[in-house]
Amino acid sequence: MDLQSKREREKRMVSEMIALYCRKKHGRRDGLCPDCAALCRYAMQRSDRCPFMEHKTFCSNCKVHCYRPDMREKIREVMRFCGPRMLLHHPIAAVRHAWETTKEKRRLEEKR
Fold it and tell me: Distance between CA atoms of 60 and 2, rounded to whole angstroms?
């Protein structure tokens, strides 16, 4: 997979997760609330500027955490909430994510 399509897929998944979170937690049906919109913009900027995109699968597997502490905590909250729910809302993406995460962890363990 080329770098640009990988970046776009990651950005799309993060956007979907933030939208699901906002719908469920904030009751928004017509878009994102201001806080979730700011988090989504921030996540897109971080993804666009990621120098490690070529070598990593997800931000959680990265050794360098480029999110500000407050935004990092917000995105963690979104991921914790949405992770289990993604099986219902986006099952193929959820299974792909689990598979790629497992594969990446094994690869990192082999390097040690």
Answer: 20
